[in-house]
Amino acid sequence: MFVNFRRIHKCQCLQLLTTGVLLCMLMVYWEELDHHVVSHVRSFTYRYMINSYDFLNSSFAINSNHHYRKGGSNRVFGGFVNYSYLINHPEKCKGENGKSSNDVFLLLFVKSSPENFERRQAIRDTWGNESFVWAELGVNMRLVFAIGTHPYVEQRYKVQTALLKEDKVYGDLIQQNFVDTFYNLTTKLILQFHWRHMYCPQARFVMSGDDDIFVHMPNLVKYLQDILRSQSGAKDLWVGHVHRGSPPVRYKYSKYHIPYDLYPWPSYPDYTAGAGYVVSGDVAAKIYQATLLLNSSMYIDDVFMGICAKAMGVSPQEHVYFSGEGKAPYHTCIYDHMITSHDHISDVRSLWRSATESRENSSTRGIIGNLYCTAVRVMLLCLPHYQNTYSCSAAFT
């Protein structure tokens, strides 16, 4: 059938041409459109209308016939490899007499890459300083850095030699024999909870954070002490910046891309941003048990944490001053309540000085000062630019 174009009016030609262009653009950008719009609609529908994650128990459960087997220098428990330690400090949580110390208030794991020497040193000098936390805040904290081996073979020997020298000075590196890459972050998460189970089970709280976050340690300690003094006590606590109803990323060019054969469902269980979160000791024990029972093929570590927690009946709790993927605005009125902020590398020391000095002055502000700070936080936090750090509701906390 042939079309007589002479009979088609110019307006109709323009309509056909426009429709064709729109269809072509839709075909070209459909994957990105699906990533930003369609997948989120499906995910939120699943999360808030169906909200059933029973598939976790069957789809992620490990076959009991493969519960334990040897794997060369490493051992395989269930679905994950229990990598051998290259650097370890089993005595880290012990007292002076070599016996287990019962007063470990906070076990702080920092996920670090082997080459990030300067980041680790900045943390030791500021918010991760064990001596400061004991002398100024009156609690016992233990800091360890969780790392793997350098991903490039030609640089591995040089970096490993430097790591051994660093650890000889500071004694705070925990390293296993796996390649330290983005796709092994779940392995690093498992390292943390297994190390705590083996060597520091008495820790009341466990915090996991990246080496580019900032932690306002005085505010965090006060918050956790208030929880201990509360009626419920430190039980079933998993707190951070919560992602609810997040869809798997199907956009194949994203580093967070998850194929359907790995996770075919439209929505992840709720989870906290992996940049920084805190769990109580009982939750840490439950996550450890879950890693023995669940397949760890999910390489996005905070999502795997959510899967483990959901399987164990643990739900995350939102704290408005735990950062997501963004950096908090610089202001003394923010420091009053700040717990974590993300994306800090070169400014950790200066931010630490500003935050601790602000803490000393905040108690003298009075009613006018508090009203001023509320107004400042509204202007800063209710702007879209900072929505990925603290929500607008944080301004009124």
UniProtKB/TrEMBL annotation:
One of its GO terms (cellular component) is Golgi membrane. Its main location: Golgi. One of its GO terms (biological process) is protein O-linked glycosylation. It comes from the Eukaryota. The keyword Protein biosynthesis does not apply. It is found in: Golgi apparatus membrane. The chain crosses the membrane at residues 12-30. It is a single-pass type II membrane protein. Pathway: Protein modification; protein glycosylation. Its EC number is 2.4.1.-. InterPro entries: Glyco_trans_31. Pfam families: Galactosyl_T. Keywords: Glycoprotein, Glycosyltransferase, Golgi apparatus, Membrane, Signal-anchor, Transferase, Transmembrane, Transmembrane helix. Belongs to the glycosyltransferase 31 family. This is Hexosyltransferase. It comes from Oreochromis aureus (Israeli tilapia). The gene is LOC116309332.
